[in-house]
Amino acid sequence: MSALPLPPVLSEAPPLRFADTFHALGDRFHTALPAQGVPDPHWVVTSDACAADLGLPPDWTQREEWHALQVFSGNAVWPGMRTLAGVYSGHQFGVWAGQLGDGRALLLGEVDSPTGPLEIQLKGSGLTPYSRMGDGRAVLRSSIREFLCSEAMHALGVPTTRALCVTGSPLPVRRETIETAAVCTRVSPSFIRFGHFEHFTHTAQDPDALRTLADHVIDRFEPQCRSAAQPYVALLETVARKTGELMAHWQSIGFCHGVMNTDNMSILGLTIDYGPFGFLDGFDPGHICNHSDHQGRYAYARQPNAAFWNLHALAQGLMPLIDEDDDALDALEAFKPAFANTMQSRMRAKLGLRTAQDSDPALIDSLLKLMAAERTDFTIAFRRLSRFQTADGADNAPVRDLFVDREAFDAWAAQYRTRLAAENSIDAERALAMDRTNPKFILRNHLAQEAIHKAEQGDFSETARLLKVLQRPFDEQPEHAADADFPPDWAQHIEVSCSS
Ligand SMILES: Nc1ncnc2c1ncn2[C@@H]1O[C@H](COP(=O)(O)OP(=O)(O)OP(=O)(O)O)[C@@H](O)[C@H]1O
Predict the structure, then answer these.
(1) Is residue 26 marked as binding?
(2) Which of 175, 181, 169 is nearest to 139 (CA)?
(3) Residues sharing a CB contact under 8 Å with residue 195, sequence separation 6 or more, in sequence order
(4) Which residues line ligand 1 at a C-beta cut-off of 6 Å?
(5) Tell me: the pLDDT tens digits for 446-494?
């Protein structure tokens, strides 16, 4: 890699004060280096919500003395930023991939925000020592997808890294075709992944660094583990629990990640790395959103299993700090109840059930089977179920008509009605509660595609509009009804359901 020109340090007092806790861990964990930046940058989109959470003032993009456009394009730094690329390793598609690292990401620093410590990271800011065969760049298309989905998931209540902004540049970037460069600024309490721990055990074989990293995570994010009899076992158990909860969040909103490699698993149980992700349209448990996942390893229904597998890889990475194999295995078990209990409570909420009954799993399962048989749209079905009326002979056509086999739906609806009666459920109250649980708006691929198509022609208004819609996913927003409509290929789902 050739020497890089250093971006200028802007002398004005910046709007954020930076700390350098991760930087201070030392150079076994990262390489300090500047961003490569991009020529002639322009704003593509910004998230006011994320900016506010960071503690940036509302006019942060307009204050000329802060040169925010240059800073978030990698062309300049604010005083106090100590930029670095982190090193990690990982298993990809179940195979050990060796050393990876931030090949196109760069940590700018961390701030003490009103919501707690947050790190700010550029993605697409050029080559690092970990770029391997890559160019260190991100393109406009993938940056808009990552930006929109990060903020959409946050609004849906799913633990996730956030996105502050995307900047674009005319710099050409070769993918399948020639595209243009963009830089997505991500925000998270930490970007540490399972693969960081695997790195120090399997690649660097440095147990001292492993301990330093684990202590960093415990002291900064999971201090309750420190007082446990075995703090590192407690850390593993905490990660297993949070990962189980995360999987329940994903499954219950029909989110498919697509690349659940251990380098894409957050140690804090956050969704990280929005690549080939997708939300379910018609309910298909076997749905694979990543075209290069030929075996379906990360298919929708397999995500919890993949996460559990990844947790075992994390445990292997932590073993130098843990005396007994059985202690690690016991800690991993925390995943199962965390997933099962969170999933049950989320699915009960999706059906508007306030109480828990033994028959609920069967009720939920039979609805999902019916939806799978007909490829019923996952999001629309649950949203319409909010309007389900319990009175005898009530017209539940909006949800009933989603099913070709009306009789099968009626049979399920009879059980549902009985179950609702058992807790004296009131239609209007239940509808309100269900509308806060079953989103009306998700980032469907065709919506992202439309925004990207316009952005590639220099019109970013659709990206901004979609962001605003997705930041209020549970609100009716009748003026944006088309965004909640069936995806364009819905007719295909009908064909599938008729033929099965
Ligand atoms: N264009 C690129 N240039 C350099 N390295 C890359 C590029 N694309 C991916 N990589 C690296 O390949 C590895 C796996 O890539 P993956 O797509 O999972 O991550 P990513 O999307 O680049 O980053 P992140 O996981 O931080 O969101 C990572 O080490 C990543 O940095």
Answers:
(1) no
(2) 181
(3) 88, 89, 90, 91, 100, 261, 262, 263, 265
(4) 100-105, 130-131, 134-137, 259, 263-264, 273, 275
(5) 999 999 999 999 999 999 999 999 999 999 999 999 999 988 876 554 4
pLDDT interval class at 13 (50, 70, 90) = confident
Cα–Cα distance, 450 to 275 (Å, whole number): 17
Nearest Cα residue to atom 6 of ligand 1: 103
- Catalytic residue numbers read 263
Q: What is the pLDDT of residues 303-348, one digit of tens each?
A: 999 999 999 999 999 999 999 999 999 999 999 999 999 999 999 9
Burial grade of 486 (CB within 10 A; 0-12, 13-18, 19 or more): middle
Nearest to 106 by CA among 141, 136, 69: 136
Token digits for 100?
């990876």
CA of 104 to the centre of ligand 1 (A): 6
> Is 297 within any annotated ligand binding site?
no
First-to-last alpha carbon distance for the chain, in angstroms, is 56
Beta strand 84-86 pairing with 162-174: unpaired
Query: Which residues face 123 on adjacent strands?
Result: 105, 184
Task: Please tell me the distance from the alpha carbon of residue 46 to that of residue 396, in angstroms, as a whole number.
Answer: 41
Q: Which residues pair with 31 in a beta bridge?
A: 85
Radius of gyration of the chain from its Cα atoms, rounded to whole angstroms? 24
Instruction: State how far the Cα of 123 lies from the Cα of 105, in Å rounded to an integer.
Output: 4
Which residue's C-alpha comes closest to atom 12 of ligand 1? 103
